[in-house]
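tl;dr need the bound structure. longer version: we got a ligand (fe (iii) ion) that a collaborator sent over and nobodys looked at where it sits. i said id run it. heres the input, straight from their email, havent touched it
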Amino acid sequence: MNREKALRLVKDQLTERRYVHTLGVVETAIRLAEVYKVDVQKAELAAIFHDYAKFRDKEEMRQIIIDQKMPQDLLQHHDELWHAPVGSYLVEKEAGVSDPEVLEAIRCHTSGKINMSSLDKVLYLADYIEPGRDFPGVQQVRDSAETSLDIAVIQAMKNTISFLLKRNQPIYPDTFHAYNDMTMKVKERKLT
Ligand code: DGI
Ligand code: FE
Ligand code: FE
């Protein structure tokens, strides 16, 4: 699918503000993909569609999680987490995106997971550091992203977990698993 068609499909699903965020994620994901030798076209496509389901009706999302036999523990956690796996499902079904690596990057873009691919990491990080983001610690993560994809992703995960802890929010297991997995791999120098 070409970029213009994909952007048109996504624009229809989002508010103006969320569309501008998406354009920031696209620009950032392309740059990160170039630096870290990730397929630029896949990164671009994943970024364009990553928040496709952000404004879907909550009941529709709940039903998709049940019907598609997605992990049912999602339903006990914050509904903010739902748009990632549901979005992955819907962009395949409604927009015809079929690349499994792109669909997987969209699926795990909010929580992360163990064994993230480089494409998963590029999307996760681009979503966190795109130019429109303005939360405490984002500049440090942007700086890290210049030299290490893995260190920057870990910092973003730490910030997200701290943010949730401060608000007494439950933390989805994949979020912890992702952080533990990457931190242990860096310690073992499997990642740099
Ligand atoms: O969709 P975006 O706003 O662009 O970004 P996102 O998909 O990373 O979603 C961010 C939201 O998800 C933010 O409000 C924090 C929340 N979040 C991420 N991990 C967890 C989580 N919320 C809970 N409750 N538990 C998590 O593990
Ligand atoms: Fe999102
Ligand atoms: Fe996003």
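gonna send this back to them w/ a short note. The mean pLDDT is 97.
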